[in-house]
Amino acid sequence: MHRALPIAAIVALLGAFLLFLYLRQFEQMMSGGERISLLTLTKPVQRGQVITDEMLGVREVPLAYVEARAVKAGERAKVIGVPLEQPVNAQDLLMWSDLSIAPKQRDLSSLIQFGSRAVTVRAGTGDETKGYALINPGDYVDVLITTVDNHDNSDSRSSAVLLQKVLVLAVGLATTSSATTAANAKDDHKQRDLVLTLSLKLQEAQLIALATEKGHLSVALRNPDDQRVVEGIPDLSSAALLESRARNAIQEGRRGGAIGPNPLRVR
Fold this sequence. Notes:
Blueprint lengths: L3 H27 L4 E7 L14 E7 L13 H4 L37 E6 L17 E10 L6 E16 L5 H10 L8 E6 L1 H13 L1 E6 L14 E2 L6 H12 L12
Antiparallel strand pairs: 1-2, 3-6, 4-5, 4-7, 5-6, 5-8
């Protein structure tokens, strides 16, 4: 009896400790995972201004909400003395795409977010001669696949949305928007290599690997401020081009906000 009480107390303490660990892990998971220290700007900084140590602050952000473009607190020394490519407001997170670092290419591996992988794909944007002249590293795209069904010699095609809101890590060999712009200017009258390197989870990488074997990939460029992921997008067959009902459904989705307006804007 005397031994049972200490054992029961130890078991109770162990149970309470395990419950505490579980609740802490559950809270972390529900709030987006562990916190990552990212750099912010403590005051508005205009384009062309050089980053100084006094301009930089630190913010803790859940891992689930960390963009690959964000500059981590441990990379503070790399951005001091670098001019801004575009103005940034106070308290905004500092992004690598905000910095004017054209002379220096960044290693692709340093851009990959924890838990993601860099996957290189060949795809189209609707104009194979221009390639990705208007897509830059740091942009987001949706990935689509077009397949051909050769059953019964019908040569019927179908299109499906594979992935939405996928981060572009590199265009060709360029890992910065400035380098991509320079490459565009140099190869203005040449066909560019239609290669994008995307930031994907492992299961998404598997899906892309299967898709490249199955059909032709294409991408659609997104507005950088559009965070929406549209659910339940149906696959379309080539017959939909001739079906008025399908075309009307697409137009209704556009009017209802599933496909938003396309204002020209300078970021």
